[in-house]
Amino acid sequence: MFKNYLKVAYRSLVRHKGFSFLNIVGLALGLTACLLIGLFVFDELQYDKSVPEGNQVYRVYTEYTKNEALEAFAVVPPMFATTLKQEFPEVEQTTRILMNSSISLLEVGEKKIYLENGLIADSTFFDVFPLPFKYGSAKEALAGTRSIVLAEDAAKTLFGGQDPVGRELKVSKTTFIVKGVLRNSLSKFHLKINYVLPLAAAEIPAERMKSWGWQQFYTYVKLKPGTDAQQTQAKLQDYIVQKVRNLDKKDPITFVPFLQRLTDIHLHSASFKYDLAVRGNITYVKALSLIAAFVLLIACFNFVNLATAKSMQRAKEVGIRKTIGASQQQLMLQFLIETVLLTFVSVLVAAVLTSLVLPTLNEFTGKDMSFNLLAQPVILLLLVILTVVVGLMAGFYPALVLSGFQPIKVLKRSVASDGMFGRVQWLRHGLIVVQFSLSIFLIVSAIVVFLQVDYLHNKDLGFNREQIMFFPMRGENMKKSYESFKSELLQTPGVASASIGYGFPGDAVAGDQIQVPTKGEQKLYSVTHLMVDYDYLQTLGLQLLVGRNFSKELTTDKDHAFIINQTAAQELGFGTPEQALGQTLVWNVTADSVKKGQVIGVVKDFHYKSLYDRVEPAVLHINPADYWKVAVKLKGENLGSAISGVKEVWRKFSPDYPIEYKFLDDNFTQMYQAEDKLKSLLWVFTAVAVFVGCLGLFGLATYAAERRKKEIGIRKVLGANTSTIVALLSKEFLKLVLVAALIAFPVAWVVMRKWLEDFAYRINFPLWVFLAAGLAAVAVAFLTISYQAIKAATTNPIQNLRAE
Amino acid sequence: MIKIENLEKVYRTEEVETKALNKVSLTVNEGEFVAIMGPSGCGKSTLLNIIGLLDEPDGGSLKFAGTEIAHYTERKRADLRKRNLGFVFQSFNLIDELTVVENVELPLIYLGVSAAERKEKVDKVLEKMQIMHRRNHFPQQLSGGQQQRVAVARAVINSPRLILADEPTGNLDSSNGNEVMELLTELNEAGTTIIMVTHSEHDARYAHRVIRLLDGEVVMENVHKQFTA
Questions:
Q1: Mean pLDDT for each consecutive 10-residue tract of chain A (804 residues)?
Q2: What element of type H or E holds A232?
Q3: CA dist A479 to A107, A413, A590, A626, A653, Å?
Q4: Which run of H or of E encompasses A223?
Q5: How would residue B79 be classed by pLDDT, with cut points 50, 70 and 90?
Q6: In CA terms, which of A165, B2, B93, B200 is 20 to 30 Å from B171?
Q7: What is the ipTM of this complex?
């Protein structure tokens, strides 16, 4: 019996080639989208799942309320770890990583490379994260002040394939001894590691490590098995309130600490400041999952639509089978087997497509996902389940309808009974509306994301970011003689101007307080400090609103002058830029030295951070002690020779270090990588969804034209012309698309506004997007239908009438 | 074998009520060959469909081998059909996706007969219908007469006690039509009861008895041949 079902199912697929093709292509595309997104989501969810006893590990983070907005910091003061270890009996171990964004030079003999992702961590690091070692062992791996543990790839680059344990290595000119090499299994660990140094090597004064205010450490705590983390968190919060909050009466602690599950770090830290973790974004993961479901749903609806539309053709077969004695259950089984078979073919096609597209997706997402049926039996099982589930989901209703036909009715009239047909038509129309609602929703979202991303990249940032070469100074000599380094740079052909400082747009900036002395009392404000030189404004092309730039001629400018931005003029309480001029500011450089001076100029606001963040009050001043980074503005022509000129000057001042530069605008491009990717993915999946929906519509239009053949013939005999017939056939479907648009618009409006709210700087929701999306949907639908409509309208009417 | 008493069937549209059958009573004996005749719309096909359990009566009684079956559930009807009834239609009603052999063996599949037994039975009946040489062809590849022979083969494969034929020669030329009528006669002589709806006086002469319907009522019965049970 089963064999017979399969045989009939196979023949039916082959016989109705067009129908099968539409269904298989639609389902296969939908399934491919699902599989790809599924792989991506699965991969995102794997982070830190394989850390042994990782379920006992938590990260400590803090939350602040600032200007009524909540801010979460991934870094906490050093005393957290100390206190947790000493005063919380349920804590098994803690470990800290020093926040340190610099890239260091590693040297083995003559080999020199710059490596980022070097961690400076407590020696307990491998107790909390028992990562597998390839050479050496975790025990004592970070003991003393001169140990280093390398990642496998870094070890290979530096030492070739050999076991480097016991060998020497210089990091930023200090010698370390290799104690171990980590195995290459860290791809799903939330920290990127090239090497690990002991915190002791940083030689931080013991006094500093007792700070409750110095937020510089990523802190992890491993709780004893069976501990209730919620309770520990509450205890910790209580401890802060009771014992820490008012240690410094003038500057009370305002943060609240929290414990974050290790496995939550990757996906649930998107809004954290100063995070080191490799972060995904749970919102995007959820959005993608939703889109996958949409596309699959659209494909399934296609099937239901096409199958019920085609039921007239199968009706006779059903009638005969029933007359012969088939029961409804047997017929349902037959039709379900047919659907499952069709789904099976689609799944095969989808599996092939997935493995073809996966390398591209891997490259795009920077992941290393694999899709191998033989090596991953889980995937095979998943595909089987997918086949059955999708097959049943898509096939159940058509099977129910088909198997429910009354034999005499269908055998006599060769068409499904009118009542049944009407009911099914309702359903079909409903499904089309749902399909198009989803498609239109996706179209609107894709356009909005596109516009916002375009805005992010092209918004006037208030400074000129083009052709600015950007690098940190290296080596004592260069830092000491930065003035002559700069003047030689300026003499290099192709260099327009240069600035040395700390706090360039797109790079790290320092935050500290500033005092505004008003009527005897000192008011404290938290502002961004940009440590600049005389050429900062010119190099970045900042616009001075009032006042003047720093001047070398005026010796007081070095120690007694500030330039502030527009926002600072307002938030520090001066009012207009003009009113800010001449006001006094005081900065506590250290505990016992202050810098006091006047505001000499106000610059127009410029975006020194990403557009996610509102521009904060910024204070610019000359402060050579903090000089670190160099920005060199190149002239438009002949960049290549200008760059090699800069390199030559570098070699003169810092022969020991290779230069390592980038362009300032790249910093900004990188900020929006996640949005760029979202944009591309959204376009692709929107296209797939719309295409799959159109396949179904095409099929339905075909059957509608078929069904109304006689009507069209009669109308033509009575004098209707082609365009009236096309309009007649198209109207029915276009109406549905319009209904779909009305449903999709408000939903898209709400969802996309919510998304836009994450950006401090964003486009106004453009209402023309709705018009565009609606027109696009109507146009696509009309193109899809019109082929069938025109074909039906231009057929000789006698042919259709004679066939009756 | 079939005993019908006061059978009624009414078709209703929103405004009009049409009595397709009006208190029809008749009896068909085991082994008999009965023809039902009458003009279009007289209710003869409705009667055949009700006897074949493809349609339900609105009143009266329908007994098959002494059992009341007028209001059987869908499941019981399907069961009775596949065990006891065979159908032959004017338009053949073969399944286009299936070959000759597959069409013919379909009733056996629904009866759950094993593959080996099916093959034996199908071969035998195809032999008898002289259609063996086209056993692996699809219906569209056959002539009308051949298609109807396949349909008859399918109708008799499960050795039904009753064959219901709805204008079996309606789509055939006279020589193919005669062939089919000969086949039905042979089956009847071998013991199968046959009820046939027809327009053709010529075909009706093959039957023992002709029942004439007009406007849903039995108006006349003619006996052609003596029937002895």
A1: 79 83 90 90 90 93 80 91 94 93 86 91 94 91 93 92 92 93 85 93 89 90 94 94 78 86 92 85 87 88 80 79 85 88 92 93 86 80 88 85 78 52 73 90 91 88 90 89 93 93 86 80 84 93 93 90 94 90 88 88 92 88 90 89 93 90 86 83 88 85 78 77 82 89 94 89 90 90 85 73 50
A2: helix A229-239
A3: 21, 94, 21, 10, 9
A4: strand A217-223
A5: confident
A6: B2
A7: 0.80
| Closest residue by Cα to residue A716 from A655, A791, A797, A656 | A797
The CATH number for B2-223, chosen from 3.30.70.330, 3.40.50.300, 3.30.530.20, 3.30.420.40, is 3.40.50.300
Around Cβ A718, how many Cβ atoms within 10 Å? 8
Helix and strand tally (H, E) in chain B? 7, 10
Cα–Cα distance measured from residue B193 to residue B184, given in angstroms and rounded to the nearest whole number: 10
Q: What is the pLDDT of residue B154?
A: 92
The DSSP bridge partners found for residue A565 are A603
Which of B55, B78, B89 lies nearest to residue A325, judging by beta carbons? Answer: B78
Which residues of B fall within a CB distance of 8 Å from A11? 97-98
- Can you give the residue ranges of every domain in chain A? 2-41+282-455+673-803, 54-264, 468-668
Using a CB-CB cut-off of 8 Å, the residues of chain A touching B94 are 320
R_g (Cα) of chain A, nearest Å: 34
The CA distance from A781 to A167, in Å, is: 69
The C-alpha of A407 sits at a distance from chain B's nearest C-alpha, in angstroms, of 7
pLDDT recorded at residue A59: 96
Tell me the residues of B at the A interface, defined by beta carbons under 8 Å apart.
49, 52, 54-55, 74-75, 78-79, 81-83, 85, 87, 89, 93-98, 102, 106-107, 109-112, 154
Chain B residues with CB under 8 Å of A318 CB are: none
Chain B partners within 8 Å of A408 (Cβ):
49, 54-55
Give me the residue spans of the domains in chain B.
Answer: 2-223
Output the CA torsion A422→A425→A426→A429 (10° steps).
-160
Nearest CB among A1, A12, A326 relative to B97 is that of A12
Number of CB pairs < 8 Å for A and B? 63
In DSSP terms, A593 is beta-bridged to A590
CB A325 to CB B75 under 8 A? no
Distance CA B170, CA B149 (A): 14
Minimal CA–CA distance to A464: which of A505, A507, A494?
A505
Q: DSSP for A506-571?
A: TS--EEEEEEEEETTEEEEEEEEEEEE-TTHHHHHT--EEEE----SS-THHHHHEEEEEHHHHHH
